[in-house]
């Protein structure tokens, strides 16, 4: 676990400070409150890093969350406090959120949560899952996802667009460089 490691120093400490600076207590608290509403459980909803980590670190809350959104998506939730069992829970959660439609770039790696390396990416994943939860009849958080806006044009309209020459194609109108002489001519 994270408390069995030596403290980081030098470049690693500076990199960790930059990662931790991105963490938002408000977004973490909003995410935990949403999890509390979905699971109908009472646990600390403080958004500070310590509470956020303690609530989610074993992965059991995360697995129950995705099972509440889509029942049976995580087959087995490990109740053990052993490191590898907890990491299996986190990994099962990550596989489930990908199946629920969360983009891969908005997920996190297991060690980001288990070793407390990047809790901001965990918050981003929960926020993204919160947007997708609305598709499954659950309360959602964050900004509403955009709806698809397909447009269909007739063949006549498409052919009419091919006759127009846009300015991106180039133009012989406007300023040119003709008549500009800069410096001396080239001598060979």
From TrEMBL:
Stored InterPro entries: Calponin-like, Calponin/LIMCH1, Calponin_repeat, CH_dom, CH_dom_sf, SM22_calponin
One Pfam family of this chain: Calponin
A GO molecular-function annotation: calmodulin binding
GO terms for biological process, alphabetical: actin filament organization; actomyosin structure organization
PROSITE patterns per record: CALPONIN_1, CALPONIN_2, CH
Record bears the keyword Repeat: yes
Alphabetical keyword list: Actin-binding, Calmodulin-binding, Repeat
All copies of domain Calponin-homology (CH), residue ranges: 25-134
Annotated GO CC locations: actin cytoskeleton
KW Ribosomal protein (keyword) present: no
Function according to Swiss-Prot or TrEMBL: Thin filament-associated protein that is implicated in the regulation and modulation of smooth muscle contraction. It is capable of binding to actin, calmodulin and tropomyosin. The interaction of calponin with actin inhibits the actomyosin Mg-ATPase activity.
Family named by the database record: Belongs to the calponin family.
Name this polypeptide is given: Calponin
């Amino acid at each position: 676990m994270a408390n069995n490691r030596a403290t980081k120093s030098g470049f690693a400490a500076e990199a960790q400070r930059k990662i931790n600076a991105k963490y938002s207590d408000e977004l973490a608290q909003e995410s935990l409150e949403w999890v509390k509403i979905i699971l109908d459980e009472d646990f600390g909803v403080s958004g500070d890093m310590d509470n956020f980590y303690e609530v989610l670190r074993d992965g059991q809350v995360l697995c129950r969350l995705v099972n509440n959104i889509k029942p049976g998506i995580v087959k087995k939730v490990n109740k053990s406090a052993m490191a590898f069992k907890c990491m299996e829970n986190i990994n099962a959660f990550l596989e489930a959120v990908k199946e629920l439609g969360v983009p891969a770039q908005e997920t996190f790696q297991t060690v980001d949560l288990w070793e407390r390396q990047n809790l901001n990416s965990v918050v981003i994943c929960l926020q993204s899952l919160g947007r997708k939860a609305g598709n499954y009849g659950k309360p959602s958080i964050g900004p509403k996802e955009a709806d698809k806006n397909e447009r269909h044009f007739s063949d006549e309209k498409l052919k009419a667009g091919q006759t127009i020459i846009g300015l991106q194609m180039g133009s012989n109108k406007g300023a040119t460089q003709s008549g500009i002489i800069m410096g001396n001519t080239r001598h060979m």
